[in-house]
Amino acid sequence: MARLPAGTVTFFFTDIEASTRLLQHVGDVTGAQIFADHRRLLRDAFQAGGGYEYQDQSESFLIVFQSAKDAVRSAAAAQRAIATHPWPEGAMLRVRMGLHSGEPVVAADGYVGLDVHRAARICAAGYGGQVLISERTCALIQDDLPGGITLKDLGEHRLKDLARPERVYQVIIPGLPAEFPQLKSLDVLTNNLPFLQLTSFIGREREMTEIKTQLATARLVTLMGPGGTGKTRLALQVAADLLEQFPHGVWMAELAPLSDPALVPQTVATVFGVREQPGRALLDTLTDYLRARELLLVLDNCEHLIEASAQLAHSLLRGCPKLRILATSREALSTAGEVAHRVPPLARPDPRRVVSLEGLTQFDAARLFMERAVLSKPAFVVTDTNAPAVAQVCYQLDGIPLAIELAAARVKVLSVEQIAQRLDDRFRLLTGGSRAGLPHHQTLRAAVDWSYDLLSEPERVLFARLSVFAGGFVLEASEAICAGDGIAAEDVLDLVGHLVDKSLLVTEAVDGDLRYRMLETIRAYSREKLTATGQADLVRRQHLDWFLALAEHAEPKLCGPNQVAWLQRLDLEHDNFRASLDWSRSTSADVEAGVRLAGVLHRFWVLHGYLREGREWLEGGLASQASSAVRAKAAYGAGVLAYHQGDYARAEPLCQGSLGLFRAQGDLLGVALSLNILGSVARNRGDYVQATSLLEESLALSRRLGHEWALAEALNISGVTARNRRDYPRAKTLLEEGLGLWRQLGDNWGLAFALGSLGAVARFQGDYGRARVLQEESIALRRQLGDKFTLAISLNSLGAVLLDQGDYDRARELFEECLALCRELGNKLDAAAALGNLGIVAYHQEDYARAEALLKESLVLWKELGHKHAITAALSELGIVALSQGDHQRAAALYRESLDLAAEQGDRLGVAKCLAGLAAGAAAQGEYALAARLFGAAEALRESIGAPMPVSDRVWYDRYVASVRASLTGEDLAAAWAHGRALSLDEAIRDALGCYDLLYSGSAARQG
Q1: CA neighbours closer than 13 Å in the CB half-sphere of residue 815
Q2: Taking 90 as the threshold, does the pLDDT of residue 578 lie above it?
Q3: Dihedral sign computed on CA atoms, order 172, 176, 182, 186
Q4: Among 276, 282, 751, 820, which is least packed by CB within 10 angstroms?
Q5: Residue 823 CB partners (closer than 8 Å, separation 6+)
Q6: Which residues of 247-277 are buried (b: 16+ CB within 10 A; e: fewer)?
Q7: Model-level pTM?
Q8: Checking phi first, is residue 58 left (phi over 0); if not, alpha (psi -120 to 50) or beta?
């Protein structure tokens, strides 16, 4: 290794693109010759440029150059040689290349640090024939480029294993292709993997190859092993290498922070943005979302939730044929089709044999120790003198990566010989002098015990107290919760830094902020230490108090201009909220604070879709001895969550209970909010009289209180209620007042809702220009908020406006986007609406067979959901299709069924549609006077509610009206039309039913 270039060097990595496919195409013999020619051509170019061959792996090279210019010149020469070589027909070899310059540490066994790997990561983002370089290399050569070569800035890209985005440049070589597809960076490949790895991945090449092979044939592979063996890091590395093989991405669900098995499906659903749907199991919704997707799901840390994880994996694999799962656990999931892959410790040297410096580098455990030791202490060097001690440390720690990393971190204060001696002493203490055959977790405990013993007393105290955090924490939280009784708040920062340095805490950047967390193995150890201090309940109470204060501070922010930022903040701390709630439920002394926390979090749970979980926390608190004020808010929150689940039977008594408690306390704001939800429940059940009464009381109360958010919400709900009753003037008045309040409050969720509702009113009133503007603004807000669920509603609404205007192509695009979103989210409600609208588009494009199929599919969903209003509309639209196909009897039967439902609900617009449809049927059979009466009644009914006939319906309507006008004298036509206009709603319905009986039931003599 003495020949290794030192100082500033340039790493040059090459890789054959699609080598496996090439080998399959040409066969082994020709393939071997092609690969041999490839190696010869590249070696000639490297040697001519003065490169040092650092790694050679048959299909790839890692070459080191002392000069960046020489490295780029050699890359150009190599690509020209490959391009001009006479390869066998159909077997053109394509090699991608990546270069990066840095100043790596030179250890006894080679280079140490991420600079070594950066060139490979840059290379992996490119394509065969492409040469990519890092910003550092560009800076070294941009003023002195080899002859004819230019550089193209490709911008910043996130690359696997690199903490920060890398600006990448392409080397443009004269005479060779310069245009390539977009780089295969993490910004392009779909995933949520945490790639902010601050250290390189060592070894495991054989395990990675085996796991990839197993995943190619088995749909569930579980990585098994004790804590600290590196199961998670190995799973991440395998998943990252497979990114290009899964069109719908690679996704990780972290289960370690969870304690409730019921939260496993919720956690996985949250990864994909899948939300609960009313009246439907979340697992079914998640299965629907994943069914057609080809992706890899990583389930990390399943051991403490083994049954729930196994059930989830079994259900998803059974229902999703293209899904693969890679799980990590201390034991197998034991489900059908599983391949259990035991993750062994890293290969370790045997100190009982003479171990040379050269021989030490053949063992991954030793390589890991040496690299981490150099990172901890750059001056650290492995020599023939201390090599046996390195071997002893790795052997005693059984090659367990976490234990080795903890040991390597101590080289700042101890020699390797001292480390080996202390570990040996500690093992004898823990194992009674015999280490043979003991489980690896005891070896890991020994390593952590030893690491703990090296801490100062303040570090030990803080280390134990930090175990109360689940899912990580920010510095401010640790200062508030863990200070006191021997630790000053101002000392916490330094102590946290010490724990990070000693690998007992890890850091992660989230949206520019630094968070800290313990590895779960370390956290479990830390919890034992906290319990032993006798301070566990005190620290947990302080944890609960701090997170309760955070939630109470955030609660009003969820209704203001910074609501997105606050929702993200609360989501980051969700595991801490869960931990606080779980602890408060387990101790009678702190039930009040826990129920209070749950009540405060209810809006967060609604907006982020944690409906079932939130209800469990809230309804559990209702049976506690918490104060009536706290229980009132919990009952209200539980009622809101039940309402959003569509569980009206439970939502109503919950909100009635909160209403009674709020009234008893004189909490008028609580009364107003409870009335809002009760009004919404009554409206959705079709009881508009009760809904109007409840909402009028809420409006009056909110105005008297001057509470703008409660008033804006009441105006939204009241406006939709008036719209559903076809009272468009009142709906418009209410919604416009609410719109002004939402803008003033800066609440984009409420604003988007009001805009969409107003757009629907404008559409029904025939003001399509205004309807379009309103819906487009609503869509823009919902896209900005990332709220896919309500975005689907807005897409449907805007599509309906364009449909009414006759822009069928654009309407279809919106409905199809909506349908795709709904299927992604498992949203049956809006999927049914989109299907119906697509059916109407097909009708207008005269594809009647497709129209009928789509409308029938929509009707099935509406009936499954029990949505009477939508069933009425779907039947009416099917009637139009039947009319257009000349099937008048089928059309009349559909209109009759729709009319019955519309009359039952008091749906005047629905009645008007049925009257016109039955009139068309009467005209088609020569009953022109009867048709004129029904057309007149339909016209008057639409006028009474301010809902003119949409342009899209005028085609069939005008055709049948024209036939009536052509068949009746002016006097007879006017009389029949006026007769119909004079009918009351009930009289018009009776006339229409009589028309049906007359024409299709034979129950009465025909009348003129």
Answers
A1: 24
A2: yes
A3: negative
A4: 820
A5: 288, 289, 831
A6: eebbbbbbbbbbeebebbbbbbbbebebbbb
A7: 0.66
A8: left
Q: Where are the alpha helices (DSSP H) in 198-305?
A: 205-217, 231-241, 263-271, 282-290
Q: Rounded CA gap, 927 and 418, in Å?
A: 106
Q: How many residues does the structure list for the chain?
A: 1008
| Rounded CA separation 458/494 (Å) | 11
Q: Which of 956, 963, 962, 959 is nearest to 844 (CA)?
A: 956
Q: What is the CATH number of the domain that holds 227?
A: 3.40.50.300
State the sign of the Cα–Cα–Cα–Cα dihedral 393, 398, 399, 402: negative
Pairing of β 105-107 and β 220-224: unpaired
Choice between 218 and 589, residue whose per-residue pLDDT is larger: 218
Amino acid sitting at position 219: R
Q: What number is the average pLDDT over the span 895-909? A: 85
- Residue 145 in any domain: the answer is yes
**Residue 311 CB burial class (10 angstroms; 0-12, 13-18, ≥19):** middle
Mean pLDDT of the chain: 85
Does residue 218 sit in the same domain as residue 157?
A: no
Residue 193 has pLDDT above 50, yes or no: yes
Closest by CA position to 369, among listed 409, 337, 324: 409
Q: Are strands 220-224 and 150-157 parallel, antiparallel or unpaired?
A: unpaired
- 334 and 222 fall within a common domain: yes
In angstroms, the CA 105 to CA 110 distance is 8
Compute CA 683 distance to the chain's CA centroid, rounded to the nearest angstrom: 32
Question: Is 311 within 8 Å of 265 (Cβ atoms)?
Answer: no
- Which range, of 310-324, 393-407, 665-679, 798-812, averages the lowest pLDDT? 393-407
**What gap in Å lies between CA 399 and CA 402, rounded to an integer?**
9
For residues 247 and 308, membership in a common domain is answered with yes
Is 496 part of a structural domain of the chain? no
Distance of alpha carbon 375 from alpha carbon 409, whole angstroms: 8
Total domains in the fold of the chain: 4
- The pLDDT value given to residue 520: 73
**Same structural domain, 241 and 361:** no
Q: In the β-sheet with 250-254, what is the strand arrangement from edge to edge?
A: 250-254, 295-300, 323-329, 220-224, 338-342
**How far is Cα of residue 595 from the mean position of the Cα atoms in its chain?**
28
Dihedral sign, Cα of residue 424, residue 427, residue 429, residue 433: negative
* Residues near 862 by beta carbon (within 8 Å), at least 6 away in sequence: 832, 836, 870, 871, 874
Mean pLDDT for the stretch of residues 215-232? 87
The answer to whether 903 touches 989, Cβ cutoff 8 Å, is: yes
Cα dihedral 132/136/138/140 (nearest 10): -140
Looking at residues 797-822, what average pLDDT do you find?
89
Domain containing 399: what range?
Answer: 357-436
Q: Pick the range with the lowest mean pLDDT from 118-132, 525-539, 606-620.
A: 606-620
pLDDT reading at 439 higher than 50? no
Per-residue pLDDT tens for 993-1007?
Answer: 887 777 776 433 333
Q: Confirm if 751 and 743 have CB atoms less than 8 A apart.
A: yes
What does the alpha-carbon distance between residue 85 and residue 40 come to, in Å, rounded to a whole number? 11
Is 571 in contact with 271 (CB distance < 8 Å)? no
Q: Are 46 and 133 in contact (CB under 8 A)?
A: no
Q: Residue 362 is inside which H or E element, if any?
A: none
Please say whether the beta carbons of 643 and 618 come within 8 A.
no
Please state which of the ranges 83-97, 128-142, 426-440 shows the lowest mean pLDDT.
426-440
Dihedral of the alpha carbons of 847, 850, 855, 861, in degrees to the nearest 10: -160
Same domain for 330 and 232, yes or no, is: yes
Which residues contact residue 225 at a Cβ distance below 8 angstroms, ignoring those fewer than 6 apart?
Answer: 231, 330, 342, 343, 344, 440
The reply to whether 191 falls in a domain is no
> Would residue 29 count as lying in a domain?
yes
Which residue type is seen at 945?
I
